[in-house]
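Checklist before submission:
- one chain only
- standard amino acids only
- sequence pasted in full

Submission:
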Amino acid sequence: MPGSHLELKSSFGDQTLSRLRFALHGTHNATETASLRDEGLRFIEGKPILSMNLVEARQEMGRLQAAGNGMGEPGSLMVCAVPANLHLGYGVFTTAYIDRAQKQVTGAPLRYMGGRSNLALYVAADTEASRVHIEAEVANGYDLELRPPYILEPQFVVGSFVTSPLFGNILQQLDVGIRSMQVLEFDRLERSLTDSMEPSIPANGVLVPTAVRDLIFGTVESVIISELRTMHFQTLRALGYTFSDGYQEVQVLPEYDVAQQRGRVDEFERRLASSNLFVAELAWLKEYATHVLDLMRIELEGAQLEALPD
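Returned file contents:
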């Protein structure tokens, strides 16, 4: 069995995040959207405010609107370019810890499962070192909100997606295509998403195709990473583990028993083996998935051995 204590850093195994140059930031209402376009994005280093997952970002905006956080006004899914003097990394408190002796998962399991939906901007290129440093300061009583703010200048707010029903349909097709693990119709998706994106200023129009392509690849990676992490925690839940985020117990849903989870792992492995999706820029994801599946299989086999009579 793996070691009794395991630290699951969000950045572990993520090989391409540092190469991606665009990310998403959702606004809740028209006023916030206008402010972002005119004044830029105010951010605190390490605070998760960005996403690389088009599907999840759109769903999160819908949840906020349904909860009334948008004050009845339409929000936007803004596309931000990462300038050369800033760096994209995972936000603070996105690490989970597995205690095998106590059968507990602590830290930030929900944010860990969310993966690239919890990204932040950093000043230093070593985003992991910065993340650890900021977390240590917060743990010692320094409120994250009191850290000095920075500005992502307005010229780096490239544009926004028109969050219409048609846009939702495009993302639903993208999500289904990713989860089927078959080759996506990239040309069609690029055309559809390019047509759905409004540049903040006319000059930004030349960046739209590049941003769209970056976000499609980023979304594929994000969805697969998040699905694998969720499956891993569902495996642990089937083995009797409990989950807590800070001091609050959380649920990892839906729940499966050991036999069901073993079948799900087998099914994912079959889809992975027959997939035509993980080639070229996405080839690294197959290795990542294989590693996570191997870990789940070891855990499930360990439970089977523990159940044997003495």
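Reviewer check: Residues 5-306 form one domain.
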